[in-house]
Amino acid sequence: SLGPGPDLVVATRRQRVLASMAAVEQYETRLFARLLDGLDAMGHVTSYGRAALRAPTAFFTVAGQTPRQVAEHLAARQVNVWNGDNYAWELAGALGLRDSGGAVRAGLVHYNDQADVDRLLAAVAELA
Question: Residue 57 has what pLDDT?
Fold first, then answer.
């Protein structure tokens, strides 16, 4: 049901799954661009990673705040994120983040919407 158009009613299961996954990818990509653009527009935020094709997951730090403080602030505003090295211990070390607590990780999926992204961005903006 995630795929576009009535043509999928008569499509094979494989075609429906592929169309649905393509629709999810397009939706998540647009939403993720909004998140990255919003984070990048904030002078007190540093985001990491610029791969052309990537999972819709942002890895960022906020000046003057530990990743744990940022995560707690966001949690108080009903935004769920992770903090630390996020199982990327070597990468956190290479980026110089390991000794300062790592970074904040925020991921999006197909059931997130613009309001979720806006709530996250507003909460991060409060930390300026």
Answer: 95
